[in-house]
Design goal:
This protein is an alpha+beta fold and about 725 residues long. It is about 70% helix and about 10% strand. Strands 1, 2, 3, 4, 5 and 6 form a 6-stranded antiparallel beta sheet that branches.
């Protein structure tokens, strides 16, 4: 691998490239510095000509100029420049600065030039308030051509400095990228995989690590110095520990219940004999909660079961709603997040080879024993992945706890209120970083469990059917449970639908169609923007998710665990913190994205990339690597193997990732609420604004519109990505 010839070629290419880059960038830097210096000189000359001779007018002029340009400092020496001029100031900083100027090597020459009524441009530089400035000495001439004093203008050429810093930064990135590519091309056996790893590291480095670094920096920097005072203050309060305990309790409870419900739905649709229409009907209704704005169902729950809810107050006469606090949060989060578990577990159950279950039944193991000994263990990767995804989503959620939490405080809400309500971004950052602790623990527990066991069931001989593992009583019980769940979901959505035709829910229940006209008049552009950006985000997240899962499951390389952790990290971070960190990171050079549609697409992809990784990884762990190894033995390249063998087998995971990303992009709130702009607005932010202003009719119209768009998108995706007939499975009874 490492031969003398290859090392010599790499060294020669590197040397030539670095020489070329240095020459190009130094030429650009010199040209820009010359232009900037000439422009600065012209500005100072123009400024010098406007210096007033009257001392009082000069003082006003000096204050005005310094207030307009923070990079400029002006000193005034009264009297004959050759006869011990006196600095006119009471400012100790200006006196210290003048002492430095007086001790400089060219001060005498500058004073002599001023005495001849000439300007003098010093080549020396000085540090003033963290800025590097260069002085220009200007004579103050009165009407009779006598010199009344010397004006010293110290100006910072910040534009040149910033440009050179940016140029140096870009040069480093360009050199690293090119030399890494050359290294991979020369020394790597699989250059395409190497390039993919570099791309993934670059993506998470720029769009995960860098923004969080900018946000974290605010928590440890005070007055330009490193300080842990804020950390000490927050960690010494019981508030953070109570919120942390509540967050863990809520996350564990929601993840456990939602994963259980999701598994029941997935098992019922894959391991019982159902008609195709019934199966599609159940799957469609099970996915409804995840395709609506996160607070829509919460509002519907409040309208039905809140303190003034239709069911609690009007029907039951209860004045205190039972939905506030932990029990209400557990109910609404389970309802809105169990589709995440359902989607993940369903794909795993579909991929299990039914011949293993059939063999168990042939050996008279019984359906229950087959389920406990075969199906449940083989579906463990999907269960654990679903649990992790729901857990991280639940503890990072702030919309539901904000509306239903009551006195049950959680870290995500505390962080959100600190950032948005108190404008203390550093406090919010600390709360969010503490929130990472339970997520990191869950991540390592899941990885430890999965790496200790083997779950391969797809070996190149796929079964074309799924085995029915339910007896009639079990099937009836599962059907009743699922029927209750679906009925409850339908009731909530009917509440939203009814809101479209009610003039003002809770105040005026008269029927009207004006909500539709007004909603589309005010939100038509938001519908177009939201749909376009979601369409762009979905395939990007799908491709990156499958690429990441393939590399992390099938390949070994330095930094593998780090890359996996960085890709999964966005699930653990409150969306509001990601939004704020993006504003901090991408509202300045070298990357300015705030106000563009690109930053919204990036936010969508980064936030949902963990789902693609987990979904793809769960599926890949069930595919025997021997299939790919056989193709490699036949001299198929990595790209060919991935395109013709791996990708068709993980297509269900790819489609699920695309669908999920599209839905999440359409329904995002916390991440993008700080990133929207008049040019690129979002439907969910508009729904939130309508609801906040008690315009429930308009909010309902936009919610129903959003749901309709997502359902249409699902239909198009299913049409474009039909199941492979070789992988299509149907449940069969024992016979």
């Amino acid at each position: 691998m490492f031969t003398r010839k290859k090392l010599l070629v790499f060294g020669l290419i590197s040397l030539l490239f670095l020489v070329f880059v240095t020459w190009i960038f130094s030429t650009i830097s010199k040209t820009f510095n010359d232009i900037s210096r000439n422009s600065q000189t012209e500005h100072i000359v123009t400024l010098a000509e406007s210096v007033p001779s009257d001392p009082e007018s000069f003082r006003i002029w000096k204050e005005k100029i310094e207030s307009q340009d923070s990079g400029m400092k002006i000193l005034f020496l009264s009297g004959d420049p050759m006869d011990n001029p006196v600095l006119e100031t009471s400012n100790l900083q200006e006196e210290k600065l003048f002492a430095e100027l007086k001790a400089s090597s060219d001060f005498t020459q500058a004073i002599e030039s001023v005495s001849y009524q000439e300007k003098f441009f010093s080549k020396n530089s000085y540090d003033v308030n963290g800025m590097v400035v260069s002085p220009v000495y200007v004579p103050l001439v009165v009407d009779d051509y006598d010199i009344a004093g010397t004006v010293i203008i110290l100006s910072s050429d910040s534009s040149a400095k910033n440009f050179n810093s940016l140029l140096f930064f870009l040069g480093l990135i360009m050199s690293f990228a090119v030399l890494t590519a050359v290294w991979i091309a020369i020394f790597s056996r699989e250059p395409i995989i190497g390039y993919a790893i570099i791309i993934l590291f670059t993506i998470v480095g720029v769009f995960v690590v860098y923004p969080l670094y900018e946000a974290f920096k605010l928590s440890v920097i005070a007055d330009g110095k490193v300080s842990l005072d804020v950390w000490k203050l927050i960690l010494s309060q019981s508030k953070i520990w109570i919120a942390l305990k509540n967050s863990v309790i809520l996350g564990v409870s929601t993840a456990t219940v939602a994963t259980l419900v999701g598994y029941i739905f997935a098992f019922y649709t894959t391991r019982t004999v159902l008609s195709p229409r019934m199966r599609k009907f159940i799957k469609a209704l099970a996915n409804l909660p995840v395709i609506s704005p996160p607070f829509s169902l919460t509002l519907a729950l409040v309208l039905l079961f809140g303190n003034n809810g239709f069911v609690t107050k009007s029907l039951l006469g209860i004045t205190s709603g039972p939905i506030y606090g932990l029990q209400g949060l557990l109910a609404i989060q389970t309802l809105t997040m169990f589709p995440i578990a359902f989607s993940s577990i369903e794909g795993v159950l579909q991929a299990i080879d039914a011949t293993t279950e059939e063999a168990s039944m042939d050996l008279r193991a019984g359906k229950l024993k087959t389920f406990l000994g075969i199906t449940l263990p083989l579906s463990t990767p999907g269960i654990l992945s679903a649990w992790l995804l729901v857990f991280t989503t639940a503890i990072a959620d702030f919309a539901n706890p904000l509306l239903l939490g009551g006195g049950f405080s959680v870290l995500s809400v505390v962080a959100y209120l600190e950032v948005v309500g108190m404008s203390r971004v550093n406090y919010g950052t600390i709360y969010a970083l503490v929130l990472l602790l339970p997520t990191v623990l869950a991540f390592f527990v899941q990885r430890y469990w999965i790496t200790r066991k083997s779950y391969v069931t797809v070996t190149g001989k796929p079964s074309t059917r799924l085995y029915d593992l339910t007896s009639k009583p079990v099937k009836t019980a599962l059907g009743i449970f699922i029927g209750f769940f679906i009925a409850f979901i339908i009731a909530l959505y009917l509440t939203i639908l009814a809101g479209c035709f009610v003039k003002n829910w809770g105040i005026d229940y008269s029927l009207t169609l004006e909500n539709f006209t007004e909603a589309f008049r005010r939100g038509g552009k938001s519908v177009k923007d939201t749909t376009l950006l979601a369409i762009i985000s979905a395939p990007i997240a799908g491709i990156l998710g499958m690429m990441a899962s393939y590399i992390l499951v099938r390949k070994k390389f330095p930094g593998k665990r780090l890359l996996e952790f960085l890709i999964l990290a966005p699930f653990a971070i409150p969306g509001t913190l990601i939004g704020i960190s993006y504003v901090l990171a991408f509202n300045k050079a070298p990357i300015i994205l705030v106000g563009t549609g690109a930053i919204l697409v990036i936010a969508y992809v980064i936030r949902e990339l963990p789902f693609g990784l987990e979904n793809g990884s769960s599926t890949l762990r069930q595919i025997d690597p021997a299939i790919e190894e056989a193709a490699a033995d036949l001299r198929a390249g990595p790209a060919t193997i991935f395109r013709t063998i791996t990708l068709p087998l993980i297509r269900p995971a790819f489609v699920a990732t695309m669908s999920y990303t599209f839905v999440r992009a359409m329904t995002a709130v916390s991440t993008i609420i700080f990133l929207v702009s008049p040019r690129w607005y979002h439907m969910t932010v508009l729904v939130y604004n309508f609801a906040e202003n008690v315009k429930f009719g308009l909010a309902s119209v936009m919610s129903v519109t959003l749901i309709a768009i997502v359902l249409i998108a699902f239909a198009v995706i299913n049409l474009l990505f039909k199941h492979n007939i070789l992988l299509e499975k149907s449940s069969t009874q024992e016979g």
